[in-house]
Amino acid sequence: MIRRAFTAAIVCGLLASTPLSAQTAPPARIVVKTRDDLPRYSYRLPGTAVAMLNADDATFAAFAKPIAADIDKTLSGYSIADHAAQRGLLNDRLAYEVITHQDRAGLATIAQVRALQDKPDAKLTSGLRTEAILKARIATGASSGPAYEKAYADTYTAALTALPWAVVANTIKETKSNTQVLSASLAEGVVKSDIEPAVAKEGAISDRLVGGLLWARMARTVEIPLKDISTKALTSYVAANNVAKPDIWGARDVELTAADKLTPVVVGVWDSGVDLALFPQQTYTDPKPAPGLPYNAHGLAFDVDIRPSTGPLYPLTPEQAQKYPTTLADFQGMADLQQSIDSPAADAFKTKMSGLPSDQVPAFFESLNFYGNYLHGTHVAGIIARGNPAVRLAAARLTYDHRNVPSPPNEDLSKRGAAAYGTYVEWFKTHGVRVVNMSWGGAPSNFEHDLEVNGIGKDPAERKAMARKFFEIERNGLYAAIKGAPDILFVAAAGNSNSDNGFDESIPSSFVLPNLLTVSAVDRAGDEASFTSYGKNVVVNANGYQVDSTVPGGARLKESGTSMASPNVVNLAAKLIALDPTLTPEKTIALIRDTATPSADGRRHNIDPKAAVALLHKK
């Protein structure tokens, strides 16, 4: 089953690459309608991925040359309308150009990438540091030494100084935080975590993973030697401009009380589990719970292998419980770093990451993923429950796979997943659930990745076919389940890949159904988040940046992601239905959509709870 939470992370995305390229395509090109239509390539390695990462320049250049050739072949032979896919290909080619000192070609590629950016901040900041590196090389004729470093520092500082803070603040803070924790051991550790499992089993790497190796090489050989200079420039720019963006959400919020004559509203938190002890007055209790698994008094649950389970919250072992407070401090440190907040938690996290040996990085990432999943559902539930005494939370627990090498996809697992979707939704229907939050999703590419790291499939073409088969089983099961519950409003998170959810075929967010609403993320000022995905069926935006909520045990934590934007819309929907229980999903969506505030460029439609409630009262 697809179980990937849509919470944005700093560290786990440090070396991620994105897909990319071409301008106007001649008719002879193969038309690419979805990401699945792109061609697949595979590259054999003579040894390990880490050995190639650390190889001499000539060896790595020889390995990377056919990768660049295949990128150009894709760009020239395929008509790719999707900007994110084009950017991904171009960014991988840019890494190759930087590594192989094709400096002027790299500058041209950066210009292409910027032209394909859709978000205002990305148009200004995309490739900014790489551009400064390439210009310093060209100006000095060197790639190391005092003259080169000064030219880089001057160029990067000047480029940063010219940026409008109000537009780029979030992106620059994120860049600063990523720069501060980046190290050679982390770059090597990411390769060990994300790429080495596939190479160990296959002796090769697909084009879907090879971008990570290119960027790790670029980080190790080009960016990390300049880390101190980059950090100084970023820190100076942030310090000179760090005025908090205005918060639009406080004035828009609505807090209900018993005086509003509310009707209880059952909301399904379809997520990783909820610490319901934190919501004693807002928990749904089944008066006649069905006997046996997966049912319980407050919902239902399936485990990571999609077998019936129990309990509203995933149970921790004694060892995991002991580590939980320390890991919460890590998450707090990441959140503070993302906002350029100087705090003991931020300092401790920077120190931990800087000193982390590469051999410990894979286990550290798995631990972060595990605890991130563990707290995810409760954080979502806290957002949903805010300011609404009529909400009744039902925990529909699924289990995300946190491992670097997850369970291998197979037909039986997908069939169990499709059947489980039906079980969840049938429970929603029979227990009067009115709204369901889905801050998760997946796509065919996820299946391909999981097949590759498990060493399944003789080549990328076979993995593509297998992934498509498994994905279709789950997609059809989920679509049928949601469509078959027309009286329930389902709210989906758009995703965090900065791409079109329709092109990616992300489910459930790309579904077009009258009872489903897909949400993308903006920040406290209502500006589009750098990570948020988008699409034709994304009609509203909500706060998904550094959103404060509760986590298991009762601590507070700020998290970012469309996972946080979606429950903000569910919060509003549940309030509207509590005020008027006759509302259908279609009428609820209309109230939310019609009162959203459009941006000047038409890209955003930020929800306005106060206006939606006012419109409801007028009807």
Structure, explained:
The chain has 619 residues and is of the alpha/beta class. The chain folds into 2 domains: 4-241, no CATH class; 252-316 and 379-618, Peptidase S8/S53 domain (Rossmann fold, 3-Layer(aba) Sandwich). It is 51% helix and 11% strand. The strands form 6 sheets. An 8-stranded mixed sheet has the order 7-8-9-6-10-12-13-14, sandwiched between helices. A two-stranded antiparallel ribbon has the order 1-11. It has a two-stranded parallel ribbon with strand order 2-4. A hairpin with a 6-residue loop joins strand 17 and strand 18 (605-606). Helix 9 (184-194) packs across helix 16 (361-385), helix 14 (318-338) crosses helix 15 (344-354) and helix 17 packs parallel to helix 19 (460-483). The longest helix is centred in the middle third of the chain and has 25 residues, at 361-385. The model is unreliable at 10-26 (pLDDT under 50).
Secondary structure tally, helices? 23
Q: What low-confidence regions span 5 or more consecutive residues with pLDDT below 50?
A: 10-26
Going by helix content, strand content and strand pairing, the class is alpha/beta
Identify the strand order in the major beta sheet: 7-8-9-6-10-12-13-14
Beta-strand content: 5-15%
Gyration radius, in Å: 24 Å
Biggest pleated-sheet summary: 8 strands, mixed
Stated plainly, the CATH topology of the largest domain is called Rossmann fold
Percent range for helical residues? Answer: 40-55%
Question: What's the number of structural domains?
Answer: 2
Task: Using the alpha-carbon principal axes, give the shape.
Answer: globular
Q: Strand tally, please?
A: 18
- The end-to-end span amounts to 42 Å
